[in-house]
Amino acid sequence: MTTGTGTAAAPGVEDDAAPHLVVGVDGSPAAAEAARWASQLAARLGARVVAIAVAVPQPLVAPGVDIGVAATTLDLPAVEEGVRARCRQWLDEAVAGLPGEVVGRVERRVEVGDPTTALLDAAREATMLVLGNHRHGGVAGALLGSVAQQCTHRARCPLVLVPGPTT
Questions:
Q1: If DSSP states are collapsed to H, E and C, what string results for the chain?
Q2: 78: which residues sit within 8 A by CB, 6+ positions away?
Q3: pLDDT digits (tens, 9 = 90+) for 52-72
Q4: Long-range contacts made by residues 97-105, C-beta under 8 angstroms, separation at least 24?
Q5: d(Cα 110, Cα 91) in Å, to the nearest integer?
Q6: Is 50 exceeded by the pLDDT of residue 105?
Q7: Region for residue 132 given its phi and psi (left: phi exceeds 0; alpha: psi -120 to 50; beta: otherwise)
Q8: Model's pTM, two decimal places?
Q9: CA distance 104 to 49
Q10: Which of 89, 94, 127, 153 has the smallest count of CB within 10 Å of its CB?
Q11: How far is CA 154 from CA 104, 106, 120, in A?
């Protein structure tokens, strides 16, 4: 981290105040487009990219099921590791689609929790937040409560929504 006096970060420590773009990755074609767009801009700016996939804790039992009984039959750490592994796969796939010269500028992170909160926290000191637009409009967009929609209201940095491929 910098101290505000222009000193550089210690070796091996990322400087969150240095120019960087945060891109959300969720395994979708729209997120892959966002990662490509962010990496191209970062290359022009001499910035790095922080690609983030968020593991969302899922309810593991149905309503009315005794949680004590369910917990004894589930390997909760294995379930959590499976979700994290899926996020790492999304990141690997998104980065694999980038030009070779920018791959080394991409930091991959898996966060756990609410995607909106995780992305906004990561982008607090970012140059820009880049998200894929899944094109959920109308009723679907209202019902889904999209992460992009929530971020547009709360981001403290510029936000770019990159449209996903048309099918």
A1: CCCCCCCCCCCCCCCCCCCEEEEECCCCHHHHHHHHHHHHHHHHHCCEEEEEEEECCCCCCCCCCCHHHHHHHCCHHHHHHHHHHHHHHHHHHHHHCCCHHHHCCEEEEEEECCHHHHHHHHCCCCCEEEEEECCCCHHHHHHHCCHHHHHHHHCCCCEEEEECCCC
A2: none
A3: 999 987 665 555 555 555 555
A4: 97/32, 97/35, 97/36, 98/35, 98/36, 98/39, 99/39, 99/40, 99/43, 101/43, 102/39, 102/40, 102/42, 102/43, 102/49, 105/39, 105/42, 105/43, 105/47, 105/48, 105/49
A5: 9
A6: yes
A7: beta
A8: 0.77
A9: 9
A10: 153
A11: 30, 24, 8
- pLDDT beyond 70 at 161: yes
Query: The tokens of 107 are what?
Result: 């930091």
Domains and CATH numbers, the chain: 20-132 (3.40.50.620)
Amino acid in position 14: E
Cβ atoms < 10 Å from Cβ of 68: 7
Q: Are 108 and 54 in contact (CB under 8 A)?
A: no
User: What phi and psi values does residue 36 have, to the nearest 5 degrees?
Assistant: -65, -45
Length of the chain: 167
